[in-house]
Amino acid sequence: MFKMNGNPPKRILIVNQNWMGDVLFSTPALRAVRKKFPESFIACLVPPRCEAVLRNNPHLNEVMLADDRAPFLSLWATARIVGAIRKRHFDKAIFFHRSKTKVLWTLLAGVPERTGYAGSALRSRWLTRAVARPEKPPHKVDYFLNLIGRDGIAPDGRTLDFYPDPAAEARLRMLLKEEGVDPDSPYAVLHAGGNWELKRWPVASFVRWIGLFLKEFPWPVILCGTSAEEKISNAIRSPFPPGRVVSLSGKTSVDTLALLLKNARVVLSNDSGPIHLAASQNARIVGLFGPTDPALTGPVTSAPAVILRKDVGCELPCTFRACDHRVCMDWITPEEVFERTKELLK
User: Fold this and answer.
1) At what angle do helices 20-36 and 273-280 cross, to 10 degrees?
2) Can you say whether the dihedral through the CA atoms of 221, 224, 227, 232 is positive or negative?
3) Which is more confidently placed, 196 or 58?
4) CATH of the domain at 85
5) Which residues contact 60 (CB under 8 A, 6 or more apart)?
6) CA quadruple 185, 186, 191, 192: dihedral positive or negative?
């Protein structure tokens, strides 16, 4: 149980995951920890790219940052984060991350209780409570809830939490107006990126879907993504007249993106961070899955959602970063995606 000398922990560090979607999946567990320990100081450690996901989360007292690559580049970087952890005098650490290095940080920092899933021999030895992994992998949300449940913390629902900056609404409205989009009129949002190529539906398929959509709906289609995904967005946008398809890739913060997704009539997305951000805002979602398994990493939402995936006989989730066939995504046709989109919008 979560106790120090018979008392609840006063200062808890949660070592979180490295990607937007995974951090969003952890938010039901963060909420449950706060509900169990309303008076405790709770901090969450993430890489800088995930800081905005938790910046306004009311269940946390602090978001700590550690570059997940830096410890392998510099002993100084390791010493800095160990010192930062030691300075805060945590009496409990919970590891949503599977890294043994991050367990070592807390060991060196003198955190007396360290709970996480068992892993390598070293990781398990460095944990004071090594929890056996579930025999059958659950959805990632339940994976985190199971871990804290083994320490006596009851779940507080599965809803994902994201709290946009209150000033983001005005920034989004200004951004849309600059692109010629009426922020009070309907629009659809499309995210064509993904953190590796095999998760991405082909550009030609997105173009065909937009063509079908624009013939039936008068709304603009807004492309979103990171600055690294601008090339993909521009390739999708280029066949269409100005104003019908607009790219905001590289122009939104996480806060403005969340509100863009929240206000959309429908969000079409590959399995990537924005689909889970959309889920946290109860947007209507059409999700495209190929090498990943929606049973493990699908959007968690109470809003209407459609998931499309083809069973091509491959083991899921697929861990390949390259594939000569790509049939898991290529066999999803624009026509069937559009038909499912129309059903969702009825």
Assistant:
1) 40
2) negative
3) 58
4) 3.40.50.2000
5) 30, 34, 42, 43, 44, 54
6) negative
The side-by-side arrangement of strands in the sheet containing 245-247 is 245-247, 221-224, 188-191, 266-270, 285-289, 305-309
Q: Which of 286, 284, 277 is nearest to 332 (CA)?
A: 286
Determine the Cα–Cα distance for residues 269 and 275; give it in Å rounded to an integer: 6
The CA distance from 226 to 191, in Å, is 10
Q: How far apart are CA 322 and CA 318, in angstroms?
A: 10
- For 67, the domain range is 11-149
Report H helices in the chain.
Answer: 20-36, 51-54, 75-87, 100-108, 121-126, 140-149, 168-178, 203-216, 230-237, 254-263, 273-280, 294-297, 327-330, 334-345
The conformational region for residue 194 under phi > 0 = left, psi -120 to 50 = alpha, else beta, is left
| Angle of the 140-149 helix axis to the 20-36 helix axis, nearest 10 | 30
Domain count, the chain: 2
- Calpha distance 119→147 (Å, rounded): 13
Residue type, 122: L
Q: Both 137 and 75 in a single domain?
A: yes
Instruction: Please report whether residue 156 resides in a domain.
Output: no
Phi-psi region of 250 (alpha: psi -120 to 50; beta: other; left: phi over 0): left
Residues 6+ apart with CB under 8 A from 189: 221, 222, 223, 224, 260, 261, 264, 266, 267, 268, 269, 278, 283
**134 and 243 within one domain:** no
Residue 1 lies in a domain: no
pLDDT tens sequence across 91-120: 999 999 998 999 999 999 999 999 999 999
Report whether 314 contacts 328 (CB < 8 A): yes
Query: Sign of dihedral through CA atoms 263, 47, 270, 279?
Result: negative
Per-residue pLDDT tens over the stretch 139-179: 999 999 999 999 999 999 999 999 999 999 999 999 999 99
81 and 204 part of one domain: no
Instruction: Quote the pTM value.
Output: 0.94
Distance of alpha carbon 157 from alpha carbon 210, whole angstroms: 36
Structure-block tokens of residue 9: 């922990």
- The answer to whether the bond into 317 is cis (omega within 30° of 0) is yes
- What residue type is assigned to position 130 of the chain? A
